[in-house]
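Saturday, quiet lab. Running sequence design on the structure tokens for the scaffold JK sent over.
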């Protein structure tokens, strides 16, 4: 049969060129992972064929025994990884090998620093798959044919990793893919039978497909007889007591394409209940580079009766647990299940609830038994977990228990205090959990709203993540204790001040006197700021600052307003309440009877200072500067 070669030389996508350079220069210290990646890709290809053949058995082409074969040729200095999986067409070879179809790739690559250790860590978050072969190769040749297409539809792809590749049509009688790695000088260890077997058993022992090599004679010469190198048994189907920690970690690296061990895992086999399933889930040490990309796919690998069905099944876990990796195997779904069927299948809610429970159990166990590891988890994934109270009302309290915050009672900048920790430190008379939101930790700590709390040694949680106000908006209470913003609503002084009855009576009289003394001033300032504030009143919050802005209990906070505006959403701003400190010298001066124009100037400065103190931006900063300068000139004469 004559084949029209139709050879083309094409350039790699720009991101691929950069990635190839990084891979070669950053992963040199762990070169052997290239074989794990190529074998893992081959395993995925066989899984895809097995699933496709459920509805179209002809795709097996009279060769239903799926396997991966690893061979080497010392004379040619080549290593070949072959599979009889789904294979690729010409267009698929260009798409899969010449481009990277991951959103956020350019942003990820921009984080590369040139520091090999740091870049290798980032590469591990990205996952390089096929391109890792260029760590030890000066040329890679790929021969492939899509299952179901004729022999004349074979394709050959070849590159030296120098920015371009050639692709042409060939005749290929067998389906699947052969990857021929032409080794660089000095990489002869990958032509050694024992070395290859050790790498395969180290990384791929529990892949659910046989990885085969030719038997070797005593001197290492390959014979014509094939043998299976790995156990070829799905790891999750084995009893836990037969699985070593290193086996769990090797399997994690396979499914997650990670270069580091996982932080923790949970292996569960449930039988005899409303639904039978086996799950093996992992918590990574670091997030993938695209975790915050909106269109990033996530989810577990789904198997039905040990047959791979699909990857990244989002229906099995909520979005706030998108960092969880793993597999779930069940007999409660049909083998021909599709993503569309999953949406409506009656077993999915039960399976999802069980997997959420296992995930939260794993995190809870990590927090209790290995707090240092949980601290590492929180640094990497805490902001993601904080989405939970809004997304998962059923498990809101369980998720809330896992949350961590900074606090006025904790040292440093780390978020280490749980809500249970806070409750354990509450004063006997305290009934609420107090918090304040701010853009930075420094702004939170210096907020004037905390002055009464500091004076009475009441702890306040410092919420500085962008999502925090959203979190507390969906978490009205925890352990029957209301969540209360220190910058909203009226404060319950009985909780905050440990006073005798006589002292309380004295404070009440003082409040009444202050109200009478400042009544006229409050009305004047209310008139001056009528278009900016809802009300002007005397404050019980302030002990040092002259003024602060307070929102109603259920009003949107300034941090959330800024966040929504930045996202381009229309925001109806609620007027705040301006609270004045009657004991402050500036407020006393205002009440002493200033000329109308000067009172107006000072009032504007007071209001704008309060805005700056809460982290809000001034609408007219130049006017503020002008007023302050004018005040300085008056002071210095």
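Result came back. Writing it out in full:
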């Amino acid at each position: 049969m004559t084949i029209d070669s139709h050879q083309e030389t094409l350039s790699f996508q720009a991101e691929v060129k950069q990635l190839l350079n990084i891979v070669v220069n950053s992963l040199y210290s762990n070169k052997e992972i290239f074989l794990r990646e190529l074998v893992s890709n081959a395993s995925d290809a066989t899984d895809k064929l097995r699933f496709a053949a459920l509805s179209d058995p002809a795709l097996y082409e009279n060769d239903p025994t799926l396997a991966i074969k690893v061979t080497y040729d010392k004379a040619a200095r080549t290593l070949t990884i072959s599979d009889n999986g789904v294979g690729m067409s010409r267009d698929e070879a260009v798409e899969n090998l010449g481009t990277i179809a991951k959103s956020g790739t350019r942003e990820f690559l921009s984080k590369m620093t040139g520091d090999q250790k740091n870049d290798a860590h980032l590469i591990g978050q990205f996952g390089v798959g096929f391109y890792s072969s260029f760590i030890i190769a000066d040329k890679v040749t790929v021969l492939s044919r899509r299952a179901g297409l004729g022999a004349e539809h074979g394709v050959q792809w070849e590159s030296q990793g120098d920015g371009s590749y050639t692709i042409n049509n060939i005749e290929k009688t067998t389906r699947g893919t052969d990857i021929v790695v032409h080794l660089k000088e000095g990489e002869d260890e990958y032509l050694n039978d024992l070395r290859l077997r050790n790498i395969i058993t180290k990384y791929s022992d529990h892949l659910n497909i046989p990885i085969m090599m030719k038997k070797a004679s005593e001197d290492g010469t390959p014979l014509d007889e094939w043998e299976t190198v790995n156990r070829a048994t799905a790891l999750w189907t084995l009893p836990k007591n037969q699985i070593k920690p290193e086996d769990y970690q090797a399997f994690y690296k396979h499914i997650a394409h990670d270069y580091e061990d996982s932080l923790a895992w949970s292996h569960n086999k449930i039988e005899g209940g409303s639904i039978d399933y086996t799950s093996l889930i992992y918590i990574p040490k670091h997030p993938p580079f695209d975790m915050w990309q909106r269109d990033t796919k996530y989810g577990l690998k789904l198997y039905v009766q040990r047959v791979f069905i699909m990857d990244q099944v989002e229906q099995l876990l909520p979005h706030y647990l998108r960092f969880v990796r793993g597999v779930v195997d069940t007999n409660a779904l049909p083998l021909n299940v599709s993503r569309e069927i999953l949406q409506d299948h009656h077993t999915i809610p039960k399976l999802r609830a069980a997997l959420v429970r296992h995930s939260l159990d794993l995190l809870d166990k990590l927090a209790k038994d290995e707090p240092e590891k949980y601290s590492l988890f929180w640094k990497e994934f805490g902001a993601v977990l904080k989405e939970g109270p809004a997304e998962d009302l059923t498990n809101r309290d369980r998720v809330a228990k896992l949350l961590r915050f900074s606090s006025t009672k904790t040292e440093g900048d780390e978020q280490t205090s749980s809500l249970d920790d806070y409750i354990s430190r509450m004063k006997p008379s305290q009934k609420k959990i107090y918090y304040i939101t701010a853009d930075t930790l420094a702004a939170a700590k210096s907020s004037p709203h905390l002055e009464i709390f500091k004076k009475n040694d009441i702890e306040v949680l410092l919420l500085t993540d962008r999502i925090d106000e959203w979190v507390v908006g969906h978490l009205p209470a925890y352990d029957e204790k209301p969540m209360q913003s220190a910058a909203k609503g009226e404060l319950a002084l009985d909780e905050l001040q440990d006073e005798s009855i006589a002292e309380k009576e004295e404070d009440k009289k003082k409040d009444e006197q202050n109200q009478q003394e400042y009544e006229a001033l409050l009305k004047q300032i209310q008139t001056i700021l009528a278009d900016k504030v809802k009300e002007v009143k005397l404050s019980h919050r302030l002990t040092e600052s002259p003024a602060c802005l307070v929102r109603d209990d259920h009003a949107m906070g300034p941090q959330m307003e800024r966040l929504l505006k930045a996202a381009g959403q229309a925001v109806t701003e609620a007027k705040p309440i301006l609270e004045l400190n009657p004991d402050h010298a500036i407020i006393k001066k205002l009440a002493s009877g200033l000329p109308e124009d000067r009172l107006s100037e000072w009032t504007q400065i007071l209001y704008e200072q309060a805005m700056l103190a809460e982290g809000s931006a001034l609408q007219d900063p130049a006017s503020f500067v002008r007023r302050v300068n004018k005040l300085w000139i008056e002071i210095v004469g």
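Notes for JK: The longest helix spans residues 501-528. The chain is about 40% helix and 20% strand. Ask whether to fix the surface positions before the next round.
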